[in-house]
Write the structure tokens for this entry.
Amino acid sequence: MEKMRRGTVKFTHPPEVLSHGCAVGKKEGQGPLGKLFDHIQDDEYFGQENWEKAESQFQSAAISICLGHAAINGSDLDLAVGGDLLNQCTATSSAVKKLGSPFLGVYGACSTMAESLITAAALIDGGYGERVLASAGSHFCSAEKQFRTPLEYGSQRPPSAQWTVTGAGAVLLGKTGGKAKITAATVGAIVDMGIKDANHMGGAMAPAFADTIANHLRGVGARPGDYDAIFSGDLGVIGMDLAQELLKRDEIDISAVHHDCGEMIFDRETQDVHAGGSGCGCAASVLCAHILPMLESGQWKRVLFCATGALLSPTTVLQGASIPCIAHAVEIAAL
């Protein structure tokens, strides 16, 4: 692995994607990508007694599907890396404890899937493991209860609000044996533009996405046209337009190849999600259901996956603090 320069690293021995899996809720299954998800769960409690346990169950399902595709067990893992939106990443730790594998919990809000992938890839490239699992998940109901208002309150959602995805994704990385590889990555810096509205996440995160994309392109010496697609995690339609405008000021035009997981996962005209989807499970499930299969089939050769996260908490929102945001980019290529 090359020495990291301003957050960007090129992997000397690019880790390969051995398998992946995802599980989503009923609303996600009714969206444009519905036929692509491995598992659609109609019961958003997933057979559990509360939303938080359901969130963990979605991640357990995604992990089980991922390991099943690779025909291995949790005991075969050198490490699992993952996170979610609950305090202390309890959904992920509850899911991973069933595996019995070593575990690193990470938190990057909605950027968590990219953070998990970068951590897993660096460990494999550095020779510290041969099979490392990366995962992330979220749940609409538990996120509303924790970050905004419980569903029972019946609050009015503004047009800028995004719908937290109920779902999870898991990716197994290894040294050899895959059809796609992680070639480079950029760890983002925190960008805080002073936005305090927890219902305006796309606008808050767009500057962080633009900053990371610009740094990554400079770091690897690439142009937007060198990629079949550049994915933002969940900026939604508002953040998507803003991010493109910010990058154009830096003479970088990604409009021809830019897609957003939050804009893709729901049908905004029929599903009443306002500005689009969000949450750890948004980027994670779209990565596993759509992006990786397109690379593995050879339809795409090179993709940049850049998940975005708003690093707020219920406490900071009540205190009126601004929202610090971050974005991490992962470059993935077909073999």
